[in-house]
């Protein structure tokens, strides 16, 4: 896999429209012909935890661009999984030409490019249940967490009840925001513009107070994730449900089950590996050859992230049965 040609963003070309002669009512365009989008044949659906592969600032890890281009050529859809927000991922998706769904904010929702599965956003039911799909920016989103300000309100109430002081990023001035995130003003502003989860940090709280805060919050339905010095809180986030929902959509479009293959570094593998059929760990090992061992499970293949042929080995492992 050589070369470093920059790819322009484009819509994933995985759909085609077969003609299936059925009842005339199924098609308004040609009598007796039913038009239904289907995915092209693919050996698997890939779920890639990309936060260690695409930094918040700068270029992706060397070779990742060519790897994503190779996946497109072979017709393998790659779902990106990230703790970042929809707005933070706009630029990387355009730069790397990513046109497939992605899971953002740590399992808060599945973001689908418009018309990818030909789903239409639906209004929330009158009984208060969450809508099956909603429109967020250029995407149709399948929400699993509650939209903001639900998490923000829950956090404020929890802080007041427990007496543990917290500082939400949305309350900071642009200068304070940049200082606390370590990002330039523009990137820092994108980081705090969220759809579901609330980013915050503890203000001079002891470890015992933090543990009490987290434990009490979980009893109230809040899910917490630590991101360096920052924390995020959401209500209802679930990477497992996100993967399951996407798997059902791909199965329906393909008319068969394409195995789900998870790819992640050591830090992000626990949140993704249990939910996929096969798993590939991008390890910190300096060995040059992939291996299958007891590190996670017999289904897990380990490939050294820093080996020279990591992307060729990864592509071979994705398309192989093991």
Structure report:
- By secondary structure, this protein is of the alpha/beta class.
- It has two domains: about 45-145 and about 240-320, HAD superfamily/HAD-like (Rossmann fold, 3-Layer(aba) Sandwich), CATH 3.40.50; about 150-235, Threonyl-tRNA Synthetase, Chain A, domain 2 (2-Layer Sandwich), CATH 3.30.980.
- It is about 25% helix and about 25% strand.
- It has eight helices and 18 strands.
- It has helices at about 65-75, 90-95, 150-160, 175-180, 185-190, 205-220, 240-255, 310-320; strands at about 15, 20, 35, 40, 45-50, 80, 100-105, 110-115, 135, 140-145, 165-170, 200, 220-225, 230-235, 260-265, 280-285, 290, 300-305.
- A ten-stranded mixed sheet has the order 9-10-8-7-6-5-15-16-18-17, with helices on both faces.
- The chain is globular, with a radius of gyration of 21 Å.
List key phrases describing it.
single chain, 322 residues, alpha/beta, Rossmann fold, Threonyl-tRNA Synthetase, Chain A, domain 2, four-stranded antiparallel beta sheet, 8 helices, 18 strands, 27% helix
| Multimerization status | single chain
* Count of structural domains: 2
Q: What coarse outline follows from CA principal-axis ratios?
A: globular
How much helicity do the residues have? 25-40%
Strands of the widest sheet, in order across it, are 9-10-8-7-6-5-15-16-18-17
């Amino acid at each position: 896999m050589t070369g470093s040609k920059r790819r322009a963003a484009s819509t994933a070309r995985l759909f085609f429209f077969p003609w299936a002669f059925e009842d005339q009512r199924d098609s308004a365009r040609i009598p007796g012909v039913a038009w239904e989008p289907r995915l092209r044949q693919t050996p698997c659906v890939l779920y890639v935890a990309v936060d260690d592969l695409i930094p918040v600032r700068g270029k992706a890890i060397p070779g990742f661009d060519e790897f994503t281009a190779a996946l497109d050529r072979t017709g393998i859809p790659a779902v990106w999984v990230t703790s970042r927000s929809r707005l933070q991922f706009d630029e990387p998706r355009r730069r790397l030409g990513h046109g497939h769904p992605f899971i953002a904010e740590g399992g808060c929702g599945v973001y689908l490019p418009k018309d990818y599965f030909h789903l239409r956003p639906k209004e929330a039911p009158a009984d208060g249940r969450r809508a099956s799909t909603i429109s967020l920016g250029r995407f149709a989103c399948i929400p699993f967490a509650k939209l903001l300000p639900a998490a923000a309100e829950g956090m404020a109430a929890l802080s007041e009840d427990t007496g543990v002081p917290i500082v939400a990023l949305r309350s900071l001035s642009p200068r304070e925001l940049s200082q606390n995130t370590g990002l330039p003003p523009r990137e820092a502003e994108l980081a705090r513009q969220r759809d579901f989860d609330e980013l915050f940090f503890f203000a001079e709280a002891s470890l015992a107070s933090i543990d009490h805060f987290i434990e009490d919050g979980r009893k109230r339905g809040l899910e917490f994730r630590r991101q360096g010095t920052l924390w995020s809180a959401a209500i209802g986030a679930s990477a497992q449900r996100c993967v399951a929902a996407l798997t059902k959509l791909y199965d329906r479009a393909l008319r068969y089950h394409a195995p789900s293959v998870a790819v992640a570094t050591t830090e992000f593998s626990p949140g993704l590996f249990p939910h996929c059929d096969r798993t590939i760990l991008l390890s910190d090992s300096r060995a040059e050859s992939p291996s299958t061992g007891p590190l996670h499970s017999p289904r897990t293949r380990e490939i050294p992230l820093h080996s020279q042929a990591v992307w060729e080995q990864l592509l071979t492992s994705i398309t192989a049965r093991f």
